[in-house]
Amino acid sequence: MKNQLPIIEVAELFTKSENLDLRIFDVRTGPDANTEYRKKHLGNSVFVDLNSDLAEIDDPKFGGRHPLPKFENFIKTIGKLGIDKDSHVVIYDDKNGANAAARFWWMLKAAGHQNVQVLNGGLQFAENQNYPLSSNDNSYPETKYISDYTDWQLPQVWIDNVRSASQDMDSVIVDVRESQRYQGITEPIDLVAGHIPNAKNYPFSDNLDENGLFKSPEVLKDLYSELFEKYDKSKIIFHCGSGVTACHSLLALDYAGFDIPNLYVGSWSEWSRNGI
């Protein structure tokens, strides 16, 4: 039985906005992300940088464009951001949770932090609902976060596992990129277009309705039920371009009541650079 939904509505966040244990984080991305944050963000939210806080970027050939940081480094980051064991963490971005909000959610869950949610609809929907905005540069008092674990607690696979899965009909590789990237018609980011052999396309955008909100758990359950009926969860691998947007679909799966399957963090950005 799940204790808490991974999605929080704007109206619910508003009722909790004065809670002392609430920690709100803005994880929008792009070259001007921090500048845009300083112009306008949800009241009391603190900016988190995908590239420096949620990844340790080196060579995309080894780990992809956004490899996870070392676990112990991420635990230090959690403390610097002002999160402790009792914190209720709410995360949003400017892409309906489809980008770094879901990645930060996955990382906190994988670090053992249970009280973490993504804001449904993100910044735009909150603004449309008249949630208070600010241009102040906020921060929370630093903590000493002590995890019960020494490594990530949610399932992952690496490139060798994916290579095996690409030739195993009992496995499935789920590519959440938009269909034109999956089909190799266009590739705006990585060096090579196409998809991993044995991959099926479930675009992350299908998790959302016409208003940019997550579809209901019942609708999402219908969308993904065939996957979980046909394949053992240990044989299901989700990936995207760089291990970020795939977390949006893992978030949707958790919202629908499924166990969270494997994440391939290296994703297409690593796979396509290895000549496989």
Automatic annotation (TrEMBL):
Keywords: Pyruvate, Repeat, Transferase
Superkingdom to which the source organism belongs: Bacteria
Domain Rhodanese: 21-135, 167-276
Keyword Repeat among UniProt keywords: yes
CDD domains the UniProt entry points to: TST_Repeat_1, TST_Repeat_2
Gene3D superfamilies: Rhodanese-like domain (3.40.250.10)
Molecular function GO terms recorded: thiosulfate-cyanide sulfurtransferase activity
Residues spanning the membrane: none
ATP-binding among keywords: no
Matches recorded under InterPro entries: Rhodanese-like_dom, Rhodanese-like_dom_sf, TST/MPST-like
Family annotation (PANTHER family): SULFURTRANSFERASE (PTHR11364:SF27), THIOSULFATE SULFERTANSFERASE (PTHR11364)
UniProt protein name: Thiosulfate/3-mercaptopyruvate sulfurtransferase
Organism phylogeny: Bacteria, Pseudomonadati, Bacteroidota, Flavobacteriia, Flavobacteriales
